Amino acid sequence: MSVSREVIRFSANAIRAVHRGDFDDARELIGQGDARLREADHIRESSPSIFNAGFMNDARKEFTEANVTLAVISRADIPSISDLKVDAAAYINGIAEVIGELRRYILDALRRDVVDGCQEFMDIMDEIYGVLVTIDFPEGVTSGLRHNTDAMRGVLERTRGDLTMALRQHSLEARLAEWENKRTGA
Q1: Which tens digit of pLDDT belongs to each residue from 93-145?
Q2: Distance from the CA of 164 to the CA of which of 20, 29, 102, 140 falls in 20 to 30 A?
Q3: DSSP string covering the chain, please?
Q4: Domain shared by 3 and 73, yes or no
Q5: How many separate domains does the chain show?
């Protein structure tokens, strides 16, 4: 269980580093999480019930989320399931969680009055959701993916509304500034 807690901690800290823009720190933390996961691989042979327990699945899901969040925000290639050496359920659920991290990234950018790139990340959120919602396997196989995609749909729609309002506000401010410049001859 300590392995899973450590991997989850490394992954959460990596995601925080990504949001700070510290991609090198994020990569280092992900590397530490990966090392702990590889150390636990021997459990697969000796104790498969522990290896497949919920806490280890959560660790692999969080590890996937950290890796994919870093890749998307740093505009790198998204690692494959074989790159991460995780099972399919952890991979797809980890990717589903990335939608929430992209919402956080967009909202942080909007708070800094940075609108450039926000629509691109919104499009990525849509694409992730669009792919995940087509996965039609029993919940036992996907480890709760349907519940995650339902939750992510709400996150997606709230983000779309927030981004739309911010973009309209930004456009209005630009037009008012342009009008003011014309009016004053500046």
Answers
A1: 999 999 999 999 999 999 999 999 999 999 999 999 999 999 888 776 778 78
A2: 20
A3: -HHHHHHHHHHHHHHHHHHHT-HHHHHHHHHHHHHHHHHTTHHHHH-HHHHTSHHHHHHHHHHHHHHHHHHHHTT-PPPPHHHHT--HHHHHHHHHHHHHHHHHHHHHHHHTT--TTHHHHHHHHHHHHHHHTT----HHHHTSHHHHHHHHHHHHHHHHHHHHHHHHHHHHHHHHHHHHHHHHT-
A4: yes
A5: 2
